[in-house]
Amino acid sequence: xxxxxxxxxxxxxxGSPFNNLYPPEWHKASDEGVxxxxxxxxxxxxxxxxxxxxxxxxxxxxxxxxxESQTAVRDAVVRLHAAKRFQGEPDLDLxxxxxxxxxxxxxxxxxxxxxxxxSAVYGDPIPLNRIAAxxxx
Length: 137
Hints:
Strand order of the largest sheet: 1-2-3-5-4
Number of strands: 5
Distance between the termini: 24 Å
CATH architecture: Roll
Structural class: alpha+beta
CATH topology: Diaminopimelate Epimerase, Chain A, domain 1
Mean pLDDT: 85
Strand content: 15-25%
Helix content: 25-40%
């Protein structure tokens, strides 16, 4: 079973996550037992947030990104940075059930990456591997 979250369906929030750490979208994901995924518009930049702690079960058996997917995330960040998709340095947080990536310059890049990470959590690493290989979203 592959679970897909289309990039255009990734919710967009405004402002720093520190001002609203657990927004209504997080509570909704938790209530539904699914992975939380959003993009945030902070000033002129975009941030991706994916939190698997809200998920009850995923087909991979783990409520976190696999080691393969974590490697693909790092590769994708390197490629996107080389393609100048960040303002300054990328700010990556890959800790346990949490994925955060800040300083993206384009909303569509953030949405595509959120969608790809979400798919990887549910056992489909292909979109994330494509970004990691091509450096394009």
